[in-house]
What does this fold into?
Amino acid sequence: MPVTVQHCRRWKEEGRPIVVLTAWDFAIAQLLDQAGVDILLVGDSLGMVALGYNTTLPVTLEEMLHHTAAVCRGVQRALVVTDLPFLSYQESPTQAVRSAGRILKETGAQAVKLEGGSPEIVATIAKLTSLGIPVMGHVGLTPQSVHQLGYKQQGKTPEAANRIIQEAIAVAQAGAFAIVLEHIPQDLAATITDKLNIPTIGIGAGHHCNGQVLVTADLLGLTEKQPPFAKRYENLRDKITQATTAFVEDVQQGKFPE
Ligand code: KIV
It folds into this structure.
């Protein structure tokens, strides 16, 4: 049965962990979906892992539309959520409705994710959800603010922790169906998880969250550098290099085709 946003809230009540991974093309999406991942996030991290940008900031709405459509063609069960890229929603709720509307109308994704918990972003989430567009929030380390925050852990002082708690509560009250907590202390993530009636999806936020997300390229060992909290389950860089080197040698030595 296809996963819906209603499942996510029910799974939190039942204590069933929610499994989330990022996806950026048809082949990866098909494999992850068939392996039982609940939510495929077309994260704007695709700018770094698939497009070679240094940060997520250059990613455009057109790029997110293109990659999301490919992901959706590979998915039968998972819920597909797409990141609204930098400056495709921050100007106004109207701009966010246009961008999110294009993602839902043109790709087949069922929800969007956007970063932050300021009053402006909360108003935008309220506008989107009032129109029936499901929204996943994202607080803590928000990579679109890298030039202000860096990539370091957030919420370490009592004041900073309290600000993130208030942001998470406001995002949930605005109607988000789930919220990503990125790179914050695990006790803070536990407090937020207890306070909210929507699921928290952690990345570098400890094991008290209702679900976990990783960037798939980190999990598969496709990236050269990874954040400290990522876990590498495979080393595809080495495997791809070995396979490619074998092909190069076979062709050069006349062994392929046999
Ligand atoms: O863009 C992304 O991949 C994300 C995850 C790190 C949550 O936002």
About this structure: The longest strand covers residues 135-140.
